Amino acid sequence: MFAYLCSHLLAFDVQVHAGVLQIVTAGAGTAHRMPPETEYLHCVQLAVDADGLRYQVLDDQGQRREWLRWPLRLPPAYDWLHTVPTSTSPAEHGTAPERLVAWYFAGRAAADGRGEPQTLLTGWLPGAGLAPLWVGVEGKEQQLVVQISPQAGRSPHRWAGPRLTPGQPFAYQLLLHPGMGPGGVLGRSTDTAPWSTLAGASPWGPERLPWLPHWAMGHGQRGPQDRPFRGQELRMTTWRATCRFEELSALHGAQL
């Protein structure tokens, strides 16, 4: 199965499960959208042809709110940019509306699950109390977690991925798609594995992330002692692209 459509859930929502695209669209003018502060009256323009499926979602003011071209086409991870594991540096590729960004993480998990958070990657703003983006592992089971905190003073929203096997090598690709709402936090294990949306309970997604000028790999925003990764051989590469309804073009050359 490539994709399926359903309706009558009073929201627009898109997710991916084991490579199958799920599109939910409904409303028909009803005033009772769920949740009303996030969902909106909408129509969907959708095309299916030899290049796959693509759509854009328009609100009642004619503004495009969400979009996707499916299937996603990324180059092999070995062609992604190899980044230098410095503590902070400008992230020209960053995260911003209409910008896809993906990371390939590899390493060896900590031998024991002591339960404290361990950072793989974080991005933040100057003076920020809580980093808008944090990717790491948590708990004794060492579960991969993506935490997005776009608004100061508000609780972060979280997406959960696979669990790492203690002391064993791991490899994982994480992609943030700002056109997919809460379904736009996706992961897979290899280039040939299907994408799946990580488990979460948020009505919004990566589209709320601000532009992030500071980044760290292997520890949190406050330095090497802030939630350090306790495993070994942590490596990371990155890929980015602009994403519009009309095009998906890869861009390279920016270092993290």
Features of the shown structure:
single chain; mainly beta; Jelly Rolls; 2 domains; 7-stranded antiparallel sheet
Q: Main β-sheet, in a few words?
A: 7 strands, antiparallel
Helix share of residues?
A: under 10%
The helix-and-strand class reads mainly beta
Order of helices and strands: EEEEEEEEEEEEEEEEEEE
Strand content: 35-45%
Number of helices in the DSSP assignment: 0
Report on the structure:
Helices cover 0% and strands 45% of the residues. The protein has strands at 3-6, 13-17, 20-24, 42-49, 52-59, 64-70, 81-82, 99-108, 115-124, 133-139, 143-148, 157-163, 169-176, 185-188, 196-197, 199-200, 214-217, 232-243, 248-251. The protein is mainly beta and 256 residues long. It folds into two domains: 3-70, no CATH class; 77-251, Jelly Rolls (Sandwich), CATH 2.60.120.
